[in-house]
Amino acid sequence: MHSMLSTVFFSYAFFLCCFARDTITYPSGLIGNDGQETLVSAGERFELGFFTPEESTGSRRYLGIWYYKSNPRIVVWVANRNSPLPDDGAAFAITDDGNLQILDRSGTSYWSTGFESTSNPAYREAKLLDSGNLVFGDTNNTLLTTILWQSFAHPTDTFLSGMNMSENLKLISWESKADPKEGKFSFQLDEGGTRFVIFNDYTVHWVNGESSDFFSSERMPDGMTNFLSNTTGSVPSLNSSYTTLPPSDNNTRIRLDVEGELQYWNLDIYTNWSLQWMAPRDNCSVFNACGNFGSCNLYNMLACRCLPGFKPTSPESWRNGDFSGGCSRSSAVCGKNDTFLRLKMMRVGKQDNKFEVESETKCREECLNKCPCQAYSFVKGEINKQRDRQPSINMCLIWTDVLKDLQEEYSYGGPDLFVRADTELKAKSCKPCGINVIPYPLSTGSDCGDPMYLSFHCDNSTRKLSFKTQNGTYNVTTIDQDTRTFTIQDKDGDHCNSSTGGQMREFNLSLPFKMIDFKPRCDTVAGNLGSNISSQGVVDIVIGWEPPPEPVCTSSADCEDWRNSTCKNVTGNGKMRCHCNSNFQWDGMALSCVQGGSSRKKKPLSLIVGVTIASVIVLSSIFLYTCILMRKKAKRRESQQNTERNAALIYADINYKIPGLEILERRQGIGFNGRDITRNETANLPVPKKPAFSIRRGFSGTASTSSKQENLISPLSTVSEGKDGEKGGAKATGRFF
Q1: N or C: at which end does the chain have fewer Cβ atoms within 10 angstroms?
Q2: Are residues 300 and 174 located together in one domain of the fold?
Q3: What is the pLDDT of residues 176-212, one digit of tens each?
Q4: Distance set, CA 471 to CA 467, 474, 501, 509, 521 (Å)
């Protein structure tokens, strides 16, 4: 293997200096990964070589085929799409085992035709044809060539003339514009071989032929279908050239892009590629984009909504933007309130039955009498323009299965679609306007809703709902009864074209309406086939409405739908309303008379009562605890006072009974006697820490009784005997500590 590589690399330098070629042979015809040499088809239609994707930021290299001298490069086939080369040390050649391979210098294979080894690799060669097909064959030293392998049988994301879209062939998108690795979208025939399908992984993304006869624009053009079926192609051959193929087909290609869009391109006389057709053309063209019974609208802020009488199968998924679960009926089909909603400008999937019918009434009865019937459409026959001028056949289309692929405001027209639904509306609610349910109190006329809310208009010809303001009339896109809001839409060209766009605009709304939100956005809207795709600014304005007062009435019959109410004039202004009876009051949010006040107010009232009771309990506990603490403090204070009082009594009693105390009082002039102590026994006297006096004996060991009593104490100073100076007299000193 290594010697073979050395040989082919050496031979490569010789061929590089000689001429461009369209064939690889063994052992000298390799293509290096340095970008210096490529294969070019004989008619200079296609080129083969190594490349790096235009938008790639890395250095990964791939072997591919592209239109010769296309700028930017239009790649139609990639060999090693899932195994990129990390560097330029590789080559594309026929190896010793007879296979066509991409090898690096170490001998590692990044791509191979995968045949068993042959003993005669010299008889094998690969050739790039003007059809863009790389053909690998074995001549076996004869004039007859055996085709072993061809790139047309192994396409990547592009279909070229000469291919055949059989059940075994499919296109797989690139992962991104910078990476040719296999992406998540694929295009192929279904298992029955009757329909072309685009898959998103394992989910159907788009189906050709699902729409009814009235929406043929959704289907592939006949020329494209023939092109895919190889009705104009040719049999591959090593000797094929550009002249053996119809020029018109060689200027056509079909590509599946990274977003799952199938594109039909054509090369004009100015050598410019123009897009002739694509599918799905927008988000609503995706197969069953909003699920069963879900309707898609390109122009709404929220693309999907359920038909009247239906609700989201999974409300949580619906709120998160996942509409695949679709909608389900609010009540069983064949209900007591079954009626038919007339939907105009609607696209719908292909009908299940179609038969001749005399009139629309017969078609309606046919659907109404069969429970499986979900919808019908009456198609009136056109006047035959032949000589006899006989009318053509009237047709009745019946849908017995779930309704799929519904789209509002479908610009390509179609017959009126009558959908069977149980639309039991609240009292005085207006009839649906197209797909819009108009709940009470909103009003489109004097016979429904509340006069205060009469700002809506339903166009019977288009079945579109509009809202009238002092600023103008605007299209209503959605109504949400639960939040009491609706959305209107207006164009806002400045928002997408200048920095000053998208400002909050003034709306002169009067009660009961008020603006809630303002959401400018830029939408990409595709026009008719062949037209350019342009961006237009739109603004979604969310408006809310206040809960209504009691319903207006003219007689008691008008109040039959409002239980527990009576038609009367309470305010004296001449306006009659369905006022609630005694013990009932009007709840504008519940739209009914409720007992004991609004049901919506009972919960807050009970909450208030509960909080009040809890607060009283807490406050009472705090008050009781405070009282207990104060009582304890009072008892401690009373105990302390009793202790101090007892100490004072003891102290006074001691002083009262000391001998000679009266003599001391008499000498010092102190009026302190037992009567004073008794008189003041209730005083709060402090308990002394130490005695306020002390007794000291004189140095003499004897004394008379009288002198002992007289000289016992002096509370302020040292006291001595008088002038006589008796011997053996005692001294008494008293001091404060």
Answers
A1: C
A2: no
A3: 999 999 999 999 998 877 789 999 998 999 998 766 5
A4: 11, 9, 18, 9, 20
